[in-house]
User: Fold these one by one.
Assistant:
Number 1:
Amino acid sequence: MKEKIEKILEEVKTFHADSKEALEQFRIQYLSKKGTITELFTEFKQVAPEMRKEMGMKLNELKNTIQDIIDEQQKQFETKSEGKTDLDLTLPVDAMNGSRHPLSIVRNEINDIFKRLGFVVAEGPEIEDDFHVFSALNFPPDHPARDMQDTFFVTKSPDVVLRTHTSSVQVRVMEQGKLPIRIIAPGRVFRNEAISARAHCIFHQIEGLYIDKNVSFADLKQTLYHFVQEYFGEGTKVRFRPSYFPFTETSAEMDISCNICGGEGCNICKHTGWVEILGCGICDPNILKACNIDPEEYTGFAFGMGIERIAMLKYQINDLRMFFENDLRFLKQFENA
Ligand code: DAH
């Protein structure tokens, strides 16, 4: 009898009902008046007195196990049939399994710093027209960035493109005509580049734009200086180098003191002690005009940075492709970030 009970115990443990009916069938087979357990209790009457205690316990164990299996599997059908689920869909995403992608972590951190300064997040489409990506931003018709080499065209006439930078969102926001403007625009951009450790055809940028009365280069410097101290740590040095962008005049590129070697010189900063992190400048009056903003009354500054670049510096990642390969060994390192 002992073997019989043990065999049944093994059997029932692997049982899985795929329907309510199958579960009821299982209950009838084992627990009904004419079921296996009743039969076993009848047999039990003939068990020798010295074996009774052990057999009784075994039999009860079997009965309880079967009851537990039924109760457990029953639950599953009840919730399903009532259309309910144990998941609370109103919980914040953070409470769910998995972790954020490092690029999302960095984007959120950058957003938060600028939000605390009063910037709001703006969005624009990834599929854009020539006007928003180039013309309104003062790109001359023969500018090399418009070339097929750089830009992915969706249609050539009219020109519909995948945006090559998030500066297009500047134009979208200015067009709305609500002043002053203080926005940051994070998003995905596309360029026809060969994929390597330093470049990708899809990457991410954050654009910033501030337009108000009396905005000056000093405001731009102070805002970006504050960002760098917050993000890379106090004591990080910044320097501005003159540069050129069609939509800013004065234009600059900003470097920070290398956060890997502390400015001593290493292969990340190519032994210069400095790394470039963004382009910026005072909005060219032409782009304000293109969006019906009077440049006599308003001035502004803009800046744009690559999220991958910031993340690479922050986490000392030396191959940009890591962000796109979805290798769990890489992603898991950001679980607690
Ligand atoms: N759009 C530029 C790029 O993709 C980055 C940039 C430079 C944005 C200067 C700006 C700026 O707003 O003022 O390279």
Note: The chain has a mean pLDDT of 92.
Number 2:
Amino acid sequence: MRTLLSEADLNEGVEKLASKIDDHYGDRPLTVIAIMTGSLVLFADLIRRLSMPQRVGVVQASSYRTGTTSGELHVDSAMMIDVKGRDVLLVDDIFDTGKTLDRLCGMMHDFGASSVRTAVLLQKRTEHIVNMRPDFVAFEIPDEFVVGYGLDYLDMYRNLPYLAILEPVEIAATAAELET
Ligand code: IMP
Ligand code: MG
């Protein structure tokens, strides 16, 4: 595994991300929603650095990926909190094709949010298939498959405190190991 962003890099990036969000909202109350499960680690670090009063909730999204490529998106909003008339910030780990955030922004508007913005740790330099772009981005990264700091392959590696590129041989080895 090749480290792309160290623990120190991530700390600095999240600190700057929080500052950008603070500058934008000031003291306005914010409803901050974690897109599970990938944003888990970022979310915990981010909300503790934001200064405004917050309501915090979660929504589950999974892309039924085959291997490492994007698949059909499934959203479970059973644990959502009320966002009607609220300023909402959606937090996700990575903006890849953009389908996840695009869909969830639409859902928040459907639920009656008065504004919806998005924050991500990573934006991949790749072809995004939607028109929207995240409002707040900590890092732009090359089009590689990455794990750690919340991001997974087959639900593994989320606990790594750094971000690493998972090479194709390691992807194959992880899949094989989980099958046995
Ligand atoms: P999108 O809908 O294609 O933008 O993909 C967003 C979701 O795909 C993220 O929330 C991640 O769960 C997952 N994803 C995309 N790229 C990667 C990656 O490089 N490593 C791990 N998960 C990824
Ligand atoms: Mg995810």
Note: The longest strand covers residues 115-124.
